[in-house]
Amino acid sequence: MTIEFAEDERMVIDLVEKFVDNELMPLEKAVMEREAAGGAHALTPEEEAPLLAQCKELGLWALDAPEEVGGANLRTTVMLAIQEKLKSTVTPFIFPPDSPNLHMLMAVASDEQKAKYMEPYAQGEMKSCIAISEPGAGGDPAQMKTRAVRVGDEWVINGRKIWVSNVPKADFVILMAVTDPEKGARGGITAFIVDKGTPGFNIEREIPMLGGSRTYELVIDDLRMKDSQVLGEVGQGFAPMQKRLTVRRLEMGAMCVGMAERALKMMCEHTQQRETFGTKLSDRQAIQWWVADAATKIHATRLMVLDAAEKQDRGEDVRTEASMIKVFATEMATEVLDNAMQSFGAMGMTRELPFAIMSQRLRLARIYEGPTEVHRMVIARRTLKKFA
Ligand SMILES: Cc1cc2nc3c(=O)[nH]c(=O)nc-3n(C[C@H](O)[C@H](O)[C@H](O)COP(=O)(O)OP(=O)(O)OC[C@H]3O[C@@H](n4cnc5c(N)ncnc54)[C@H](O)[C@@H]3O)c2cc1C
Predict the structure, then answer these.
(1) pLDDT tens string for the chain (388 positions)?
(2) Which residues contact 303 (CB under 8 A, 6 or more apart)?
(3) C-alpha 351 – ligand 1 centre gap (Å)
């Protein structure tokens, strides 16, 4: 399987490669030092502002947003090639906007919501997050209990959300709530767009996570929403939410390939110069099998990601492929990284190499956007049905 990129697509990918190598890689040391000192990894405003300015100038902006909102409308295949390169460094950076919520807005936002939220979001002028998980409903979001009740011409929402990323930075939150408990995920869950600072939307606590990231617990207390804040149709929030999760899962596949490729490169470079017992590490079969298995599994994962991307671009349903990728890619990268760390000996255990941050991020990736075991359950269910 060979992916053909058009000339303009190749140009964007080349630009991204240069941007990552020349601008993001040099910031890794500062990011690793902050992590080693127990701080968050996020870039400081002083580090981020010139990068954003440069991206805007280079056109590395709104890459997968539609042309009518000023985007480049790049297809999934190109976006995933970009994602792979971007995640080869531990410097945390995204080309605005963070795309999955954009895809949910593109699918179901009203004209008014497109103008108010999607256009500024696509232009990187607004940030957003999504609140799905609850203390009693994460891997099985259909069990959510946050309730939206119709009172007069408003919706009144009460409940609790947890593990939500990016809340303090978000100008608006996509909040999932139950509007019909009888129907649940089949017509009873609705998405609402909540503006920052709306009374009744409370951040209860910040939760430090592995990998320097933070999530937030939210208390929703008599939050009042007009119909204009309903995203899509009442009761039909689950399907576009799943679509959004699918986009993110494909991105995660590309992210894993990017990290694993970096770890493999570092392992190859190191083991070809390090000698023990009078022999280069790379001459040992134990090490060669790590290299061979890593190269093989990275290749397999990249093909899985590209295959799903091409199908997605053709408008096919890739939910099963996305689940397979989520499982296979996260486990593949975990294994490759672990072997690379082992090959570096004590140096592999330090916070002076990108491995430590990568391994923590990969550990998280086996939980968010659905735990591995839930994806295996889904794949098995669909496969058994196919051969019933
Ligand atoms: C870093 C991070 C960022 C996140 N960001 C967000 C966000 O922005 N918005 C948001 O809404 N949520 C977010 N989440 C929440 C995430 O989606 C949930 O944590 C995840 O879906 C798992 O839900 P849970 O934690 O309730 O675990 P549970 O559903 O309680 O599952 C716990 C464990 O049980 C096992 N398990 C569960 N079901 C099965 C099964 N059917 N078969 C076998 N084993 C099973 C799995 O091992 C699983 O890990 C984030 C989580 C993390 C870690």
Answers:
(1) 677 899 999 999 999 999 999 999 999 999 999 989 887 778 999 999 999 999 999 999 999 898 888 889 999 999 999 999 999 999 999 998 876 888 899 889 999 999 999 999 998 899 999 999 999 999 999 999 999 999 999 999 999 999 999 999 999 999 999 999 999 999 999 999 999 999 999 999 999 999 888 999 999 999 999 999 999 999 999 988 988 899 999 999 999 999 999 999 999 999 999 999 999 999 999 999 999 999 999 999 999 999 999 999 999 999 999 999 999 999 999 999 999 999 999 999 999 999 999 999 999 999 999 999 999 999 999 999 999 9
(2) 1
(3) 27
Q: Is 215 in the pocket of ligand 1 (CB under 6 A)?
A: yes
Ligand 1, closest atom to CA 209? 1
- The residue whose C-alpha atom lies closest to atom 17 belonging to ligand 1 is 368
Any ligand 1 atom below 6 A from CB of 327 = no
Q: Label each residue of 71-135 as H, E or C.
A: CCCCCHHHHHHHHHHHCCCCCCCCCCCCHHHHHHHHHHCCHHHHHHHHHHHHCCCCCEEEECCEC
Report how far residue 228's alpha carbon sits from residue 172's, in angstroms, rounded to the nearest whole number: 14
Q: Does the beta carbon of 131 sit less than 6 angstroms from any atom of ligand 1?
A: yes
Q: Tell me the CA distances in angstroms from 277 to 61, 152, 274, 281, 283, one per residue in order.
A: 51, 80, 10, 9, 11
Q: Is there an atom of ligand 1 within 6 Å of 162 CB?
A: no
CA of 133 relative to ligand 1 center, distance in Å: 8
H helical segments located in 134-284? 238-271
362 and 334 Cβ atoms separated by less than 8 Å = yes
Q: Distance from first CA to last CA of the chain, Å, rounded?
A: 31
Does 364 contact ligand 1 (Cβ within 6 A)?
A: yes
Q: Minimal CA–CA distance to 141: which of 165, 163, 158, 156?
A: 163
185 Cβ closer than 6 Å to some ligand 1 atom: no
Strands (E) in the chain, as ranges, are: 128-131, 147-151, 154-165, 172-178, 189-195, 201-208, 214-225, 230-231, 275-276, 279-280
Residue 371 Cα: closest atom of ligand 1: 49
